Here is the input.
Amino acid sequence: MTEPSDAAIARRVLAGDREAYRLLVERHRPRLARFAMRMLGNREDAEEALQDAFLRAFRSLGQCADLDRFDGWLFRILANRCRTRGARRSRYEATFVADEVALLAARDASSADLLDRHAWSDEVARALAGLGEEAREAFLLRYLEELSYEEMAELTGAGVSALKMRVKRACERLRWLLTEAQHA
Amino acid sequence: MTRAALLIACVLATPAALTAQAGAQARLAGRLDAGTATVVSGVIDSAAAAGVPSDPLIAKALEGASKHATSDRIALAVRGLAADLAASRGALGRSASEADVVAGASALRAGASTTVLAQIRAARGNAPLLVPLATLADLVSQGIPVDRAAATVLGLARAGAPDAEYRTAAGPAARGAATAGPDAGGRAAPPTPVTAPPPAARGGRPTTPGRPR
Amino acid sequence: MPDELDSVLQRAVAALRLPVGEFDGLDDRIMSAVRAEAASPRQTHVRRWVAARYTVRLSPLGALAAAAGIAAVLLGGIWAGRRSALSPLPDHDFATSIAAAAPVAGGDAAARSVRFEVAAPGAAQVALVGDFNDWNPAATPLRASRQHGVWSVTVPIAPGRHEYAFVVDGERWIPDPHAPRAAAADFGSANSVVTVTERS
Here is the structure.
């Protein structure tokens, strides 16, 4: 049996089957959570943004112009939540430090390979934290979410050339930060 | 980067790098082990070539040394600060003073964006940026949402408010801190009556008033 | 994987694609909120006004005025303070790090005299550490003043934003209880902040 489409589930929700919304939550939360975590850098802020986004989407489900593109519409709501959240740098770094502690604790048990992967993930997270919000968002939309520049423009409200510039600068900065890390 | 560009960059960067390196090594020697000192010096050199002040990076490394942090942690902290300072320098421009760049990095660390930094710079014109940036960092690091803090500071900047107004605009506690007598040294913190803490237990640790968070 | 990225960034993106771990109970919490929403939308909206922090998207000054007005209404209090659009924080105890300080007599022209003070009765020694003395606990001891348990010192510091802390009895690091904290604690213990300006 094939799974129902987003549009089909959404129509059930709009018809009054509130519990059906859970199917949409479970389906889309992993991808949204990944973006929120990479964008905001800590679990607390990410959870708040996710909860907020899903609730807003539920509330305004009737206003979604094209239920066949529910996922893009929902993602835009989340991206907006992340942007207005203005996550504090301090939290981003505090999370990173906590990860580092866990990494050190795992040193005894883990294989060298696992350790290297953890260390690299931490470096990347750290480098992401070194980007400004707009640059980080642009980089993630382009390379994590793999959106086209047109889709990014629609989502952010910024122009395509501005977005290309942001992505380019984000890449330069990330490269600098990560190269520093590799030389350490 | 092309080879030629890289070479030119190295030549141009060398005087700054050498000076940074010599100064850094003098202060780091004896406080950090050789390996850590080398890593930190490397970060400082790259940062200096990018227009990032070295002093805060050296201080960060020495803070870690004094707090007995591991080599890894010190290196991470210095690199992180270098990135923040670089972002601040980018937003505030080449002509910003070192103090401005440091204050800008504080604001970024507290959650402000480089956009806001650039806006403050534009609003202040040629006036120094230390006070607006410090106010922004203070507000945000105390839990004021960054949008609100930025709006406050930008409002003051665009209105051409003098530095004193940044200190007093935020609330009653800040107003109390602004007035210092002409001959007195400035206070490091708002003058709050120092309450007598409960008597320390025999051989106990001194109690200091906890700060509400 | 996009072709235009170099190997370092490709590796970075690969790391970013990794799952971000469990979000235990988040789906349940979302559904609880959805159920509460469906039950009584208007009530929920009012509750969100009380609980939410600044979710209304107005222009910045509009948001400040709105938030202040609503805070006054909900808290049932009167906002006594400067009713200016530029002073938006009537109900928050804001401690500024900014210290206006006099120049150091006969010393470095740029430096300013800044006084640091902390209550630590029972301490045998208290030291000031900060980025202005290379965080060296031996560099700047405080003196116990006549006022019982209060230690103080005045030091020349260059204009700018500085982090500092106190070290009690050579081993306990404490921030200044009356000063703003630095945003990030890189090494675990929190630092305090002082911003030294030239007297204006």
